[in-house]
Design a protein that fits this description.
Two copies of one chain form a homodimer.
Chain A (H helix, E strand, L loop, with lengths): L17 H4 L2 H9 L1 E5 L4 E3 L7 E7 L2 E6 L5 E7 L4 E2 L10 E4 L3 E7 H10 L1 H24 L4 H15 L5 E3 L4 H8 L3 H13 L3 E5 L2 E4 L2 H8 L1
Antiparallel strand pairs in A: 1-8, 2-7, 3-6, 3-8, 4-5, 4-7, 9-11, 10-11
Helix pairs in contact in A: 3-4, 5-7, 5-8, 6-7
Chain B binds a DNA duplex (30 and 30 nucleotides) through helix 7.
Chain lengths: ~220, ~220
Amino acid sequence: MLTQMTLQTLSFKQRSNPAQANSSIERTIEMVGVLKVLSRNGEIYAENEPAQHIYKVVSGIACTCRVLANGRRQIGTFCLPGDVFGLEVRAEHGFSAEAITELSVLVAKRSTLTGLADKDRGASDQLWSLFCRELLMAQERALLLGRTAPERVATFLLQMADRLSCGNSVELPMSRQDIADYLGLTIETVSRTFTCLEDSAAIEIPTSRRIVIRNRGALNSWAT
Amino acid sequence: MLTQMTLQTLSFKQRSNPAQANSSIERTIEMVGVLKVLSRNGEIYAENEPAQHIYKVVSGIACTCRVLANGRRQIGTFCLPGDVFGLEVRAEHGFSAEAITELSVLVAKRSTLTGLADKDRGASDQLWSLFCRELLMAQERALLLGRTAPERVATFLLQMADRLSCGNSVELPMSRQDIADYLGLTIETVSRTFTCLEDSAAIEIPTSRRIVIRNRGALNSWAT
DNA sequence: CGGGCACTTGAGCTTTGTCAACACTCGTGG
DNA sequence: CCACGAGTGTTGACAAAGCTCAAGTGCCCG
């Protein structure tokens, strides 16, 4: 059943769903997974490499990305602690994956997971639901890239505040360059937009990596 | 198993795959589906409406779209003859759908399809594979929106020539406005880019809706 | 022939990208 | 303890891409 799976990354708030937090899929990764530690910028796998393993972030953050013909890097997803990534439709990875910070991940064989889903209806359902969430995210992302710079940045901040579930004070784990590559903007535009949002009193920037949401309503209206 | 499905649209070249052209899923839609005819701009379903049916295009074309707060419309996917759309993860539609031309679709109950997938492993596999294709498309689309106007338009033309499988002469079924909404550009930019591509001898535009690909290599290099 | 609609074209403006300079942080070594 | 340098982030001036507004063209269908 899973011979043709395309999960680029599962993830997104599954931590906040108690029913899935200990799903058999995740438990399996945790039981059979081998811990791997990477330093910043370390490559986890390359684009077009055979997709034989899947990964679950323990600490730090990773991203999936592609380098385009013009040399520009496009980040597909940020993978936060708890997120699962690396499962693909095809036999090869469609994106590469790298560590954005010091990173530790659990690595499990793809065949173990697909075998489980073949036998266990519950596991298969969980993959479906994770997969569905992934598709929704990809669709949302496609829509986001059609919007203006302030809309993209504001939406990104709200997303990160939500995913890191740290109230209104967000410690961004990635650089401005990473954010720019994710949002399809340049580092300068991201930086300017941050200060613009700060000038409008929607956010506060105590240090460059720490963002405090001062006025969520204002930020929401920036995000349109 | 499919109680939480999120197929926004399946589709994309499944017609060209003989193994799937008569899949049990599609056969079921054709057997139990009720034919519905809509005129241009007719609404098939609205965003947030309960997702109780799925649809297969018989003739004409449809699109899934969203209208943003600022009034701008964003088209998610074009649904060509043979394409299936309307199946969702959640209980409600995440996008609305409307007819772009005169349109006839087969409408089937969602429960019929999910019931089939529950019983039939083959049907379930087909849904997986269609769903996977959908995710890949959404990811490609996200990458596309990060590119320049000529890149987007050239890629769009190549895609349409491929999907309509009509050789090098493409009869575009949608207006410039629809293309603009799909590519995240304005109607003027789309129009200018078309003439620019014509000036560069990559294409020819006998009438505004008919595009002839004169030099596929040149068009490919525009698409980067 | 005339009206309406879709499409094209032009001129000016806004947004974002580019290039360059500057500021801040943090760790190293004098 | 401070000086230095590398890395990261911010800011400014200018250029380019794309958007807006407005006018014009062509086509279809009465």
